[in-house]
């Protein structure tokens, strides 16, 4: 049994109780994904599974057999930052940086959801093929990712810059 993590095949642990977060951090030493509350409330452990955002502390690693997991370490390509990572830097979308990996992964998943037309609680046109990412949409859709430092304005600006135009 294996999964793909950041483009590499990884054997799943024999213990079915191992969370995806613990597999990533403790066994694969991919410590970019953070353990915040370990209860699914803060979003610090957000990763992408087949392009969709999930909270990895609530997921068992064995649930994702045969699937593709992307952590913050897998966002950069050929040594170049992902455009969203660069936008976070340009817009001061972090202070302490603890929540940043989860914010980045969640934002990319959120942008993909909007492009697919999945509405949020503040979406005006529920029948649109895609949802424009306005400040209100971004704030609502990213509400599951907490930033204790208060860098929310920079985070929203970075997401608008990198993702609102359909960035990858």
From TrEMBL:
Tell me the leader sequence span. none
Q: Which InterPro entries match?
A: 2Fe-2S-bd, 2Fe-2S-bd_dom_sf, 2Fe-2S_ferredoxin-like_sf, 2Fe-2S_ferredoxin-type, 2Fe2S_fd_BS, Aldehyde_Oxdr_Iron-Sulfur, Beta-grasp_dom_sf
Q: Which residues form a coiled coil?
A: none
Superkingdom as given in the UniProt entry:
Bacteria
In this protein, which residues make up the domain named 2Fe-2S ferredoxin-type? 1-75
Keyword list (alphabetical) reads:
Iron, Metal-binding, Oxidoreductase
Q: What's the protein called, per UniProt?
A: 2Fe-2S iron-sulfur cluster binding domain-containing protein
**What organism does the record attribute this protein to?**
Azospirillum oleiclasticum
What is the taxonomic lineage of the source species?
Bacteria, Pseudomonadati, Pseudomonadota, Alphaproteobacteria, Rhodospirillales
């Amino acid at each position: 049994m294996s999964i793909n993590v950041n483009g590499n095949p990884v054997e799943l642990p024999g213990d079915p109780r191992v969370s995806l977060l613990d597999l990533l951090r403790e066994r694969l030493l991919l410590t970019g994904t953070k353990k915040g509350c370990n209860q699914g409330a803060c979003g610090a452990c957000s990763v992408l599974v087949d392009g969709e955002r999930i909270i990895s502390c609530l997921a068992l690693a064995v649930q994702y057999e045969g699937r593709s997991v992307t952590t913050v370490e897998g966002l950069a390509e050929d040594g170049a930052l992902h455009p969203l990572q660069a936008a976070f830097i340009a817009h001061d979308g972090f202070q302490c940086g603890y929540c940043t990996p989860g914010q980045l992964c969640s934002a990319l998943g959120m942008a993909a959801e909007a492009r697919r037309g999945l509405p949020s609680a503040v979406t005006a046109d529920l029948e649109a093929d895609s949802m424009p990412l306005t400040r209100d949409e971004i704030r609502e859709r990213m509400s599951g990712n907490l930033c204790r430092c208060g860098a929310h304005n920079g985070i929203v600006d970075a997401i608008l810059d990198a993702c609102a135009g359909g960035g990858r």
